[in-house]
Amino acid sequence: MAKIDRVEDLPDWFDLDKYQLCKSFAAVDWLSNLETRRSIFELIALGDGEATKRAEYLRDDPIDNLLYCFGGGPANPVRSLRYADLATRASFDILLDPFLSKNNGLWAKIIEHMTTGNFFPSSELGTPIGSDCLDTYPILVDLRASDSILIDAFATWLRDARSEIAIDSKRERPAYKYWARYGLLPYLDLRIWSKETGHSIPHHVMAEAVGYRKGGDSFRKTVPPLAKRLMADLSNLEALAAIEGNPEE
Question: Vertex 94, ends 165 and 167: CA angle to 5°?
Fold first, then answer.
């Protein structure tokens, strides 16, 4: 594995000036750019040659050419249940069991109940739609209750729901205002390059290259762990992007 000992030894395409727009990023911009990098890392892990094409595209213009399609924006973490959500769950269940409509599955029973009026146990209707397979739960809110009562009721519901699923509820709010200063995107792009080419970039060289001013040891403790967490899970950032994009909801 070739080792990069100086910033001057980095590839010609790397130019920190290309990342200046990061300073004005909102959560949705970070989400777009990080999702793109994460997809490249996943392709590299799979040995897919498409990773090189996407990486080369980024190296020419690491920000301006990136578009992220949310289909109307990232989903708000607290929202009303929609018919589309029911359709998605039904489609997912039927995908797992193509014969669901011919057997005694819950969706088949619901359809039968709607079309024939035949009764089936109410306990099955009480099964949370979001359990087992989805990461969100539908909620109904009685707006006749006061705000203080609703807040207490939601806290109780949230505690009970969290106890049933393995989702970390103690993650901090993404502090993306620091990420441009950390050199997060140029770091990820150099990591992609190093994985593709087999080059090793020491932390002190990486810190200097991406403009991290506190030195290699501080960089090592801050940026690589942050990047690793984000590449593993962007759901918290997606939720924040949804809130910023829908401030009145």
Answer: 10
Chain centroid offset of residue 111 CA: 34
Provide the 10 A C-beta neighbour count for residue 57.
14
Per residue in 72-84, pLDDT tens? Answer: 566 666 666 776 6
What is the SS3 assignment for 232?
Answer: helix
Phi-psi region of 106 (alpha: psi -120 to 50; beta: other; left: phi over 0): alpha
Angle (nearest 5°) at CA 172 between 166 and 173: 115
The C-alpha atoms of residue 30 and residue 36 are separated, in whole angstroms, by 10
Place of tokens 């080419």: 197
Euclidean distance between the first and the last CA atom of the chain, given in angstroms as a whole number: 51
What does pTM read for this prediction?
A: 0.70
Cβ atoms < 10 Å from Cβ of 89: 19
Q: Are 180 and 33 in contact (CB under 8 A)?
A: no
